[in-house]
Amino acid sequence: MTATAAVAGVFAERAARARELAGRYAYASEPLRLAGALFEAQASAFERAQADRPSPDELVPYIVRVGLPAVMEATMAEGTEVLREAALLAFHDGDLDGIVAAWLGGGDLRPTDRYLARAASAPILEALPNAASTMRHGESDDRHCPVCGGPPQLAIHTDTGESLVTGERRLQCSRCMTEWRFARLTCASCGDTGGANTPILSDPQRLPHVRVDACDRCRRYLLTIEMPKEPRAVAVVDEIVGLPLDLIAAERGYTKIAPNVMGF
Ligand SMILES: [Zn+2]
Ligand SMILES: [Zn+2]
Q: What single string gives the DSSP state of each residue in 186-208?
């Protein structure tokens, strides 16, 4: 298998996992069906970006031209009525280059604009790490992506396959999907290393393999996917089923470091 085919397979794996979890977690079936359609749409944008190799200064118009139409198609097929209407309005009347440039630059966006910019950009940044690395701005500590400087979406505890060997903790970028190693007891937002300030919230009955890692110093949190408890998990997809834990974290006054593509 070529490297391109292998990565296209990664998108197919994400889409298949989203469909599987949509059948298992009724409360998240709508966002998971949309996520499945997005992953399928993103596979072709990824392949085109690898073939076209746009230069960094062409990146914004390229994302609008190549990434966005497929996202719109997936959204029209599987989005809620509210999202479909908001997306159509943004697509026809919005400043699409401006929206994408703001997302790449780490700016604040309205939820629909952020969704469109993020879903359109992600496969292209994933295909072109060199282009992603030109977007770096400001943050260059280990709490930000080593490729693009973006904040982490989630944490992963890896599975070593051996019960007595502890796996790594990794963070995954919210913009370009890069993963990097990160210390286990350190807050991924403020860097606090006092384990006593980092409560863990979970719902072991309903979601044994997902938990909240929160921080009482900065009041931020992210979801951690524990691969040893669910070896078939695909972190970026399984994070979406963590919605009940997002609600618990919000009730306790914590804010997610980066909302996921579905906005929660
Ligand atoms: Zn990144
Ligand atoms: Zn913190």
A: S-TTT----GGG--EEE-TTT-T
